[in-house]
Amino acid sequence: MENNENKQELQNESNSAKRLRMLGDATSEDIHLKSDESVKGSFWANLWYQRKWAIIIGGITLLLLIALTFTLCHDKKSDMNIIYVGPNYDLSYNEKLTAMNEKFSLICPDYDENGEVYVSSPALIYKSPEQLEAYKKENPNRDLSAMDKANNDAYNQFAGQIMSGELSIYLIDPYLYNQMAKTACVPLSDVLGYECDESLKYDEKAIYFCKTDFAIYFDEFDDVPQDTLMCVVKTINTDDDFFADSCDYFKRIVEFKAQ
Q1: Is 221 exposed, middle or buried (0-12, 13-18, 19+ CB in 10 A)?
Q2: Could you read off the pLDDT of 139-169 as tens digits, one per residue?
Q3: Residue 128 near residue 228, CB atoms below 8 Å
């Protein structure tokens, strides 16, 4: 019975196993040792083969960290940030923004006390549904198929931005102000410390930027739509010192008088 079982096992044995059995254990041991020797002798090749994607991803991550560190170390730090969110594409051009930055900087204190004064005024272009429809009718021969998605992306970006707390002063279209920003805005009386001039007010939390003497005095703000509002936003993520500086700067714009 035992012989029959052994016979059956031998029949089921693979050719490789038969070969190893016939050659004996010593040969098997040599093969194993040679295999180990081969692996040790080609360490870097084996490392690349086994860890290729980990090395690639790690290398990319390292490069990104180096680039980010370089950017943070060399990026010009701003004393104040004012973002434009509205329909005018002209305000997205660098030369326009640079010119506006220069005028905004004229009345800005050195809040970070680094010996330099710099105001950043980025722009996020968004058209309300009515503005977008009107723009399409005014440009019937242009391919505006991508505009709907771009407008949607801008809306979502604004939604994330307003909750980040990184910016407090907004120059904003009334549509977006009423749709999203108003609830996060601080009352003008709290920002200024007194009741705002009724001729400037849109409501209790926003003023018409283009009605301020500051905007009227400098030609660089002529492209800002006349109904653009200026307000101060505060969320749970807003730094207290930055918020205080933002209120102070808002007040400086409101109280500006040409010499």
Answers
A1: buried
A2: 888 877 788 888 999 999 999 888 888 888 9
A3: no
Quote the longest CA-to-CA distance of the chain: 117
Exposed, middle or buried, 217 (CB in 10 Å: 0-12/13-18/19+)?
middle
Does an H or E element contain 31, and which? helix 25-41
Q: What is the pLDDT of residues 5-44, one digit of tens each?
A: 454 554 555 555 555 455 444 444 444 444 444 445 566 6
Residue 141, exposed/middle/buried by CB under 10 A (0-12, 13-18, 19+)? exposed
Beta bridge partners of 231: 170
Supply angle C-alpha 38, 43, 48, rounded to 5.
120
- The per-residue pLDDT for 241 is 93
Cα-to-chain-centroid distance, residue 210:
28
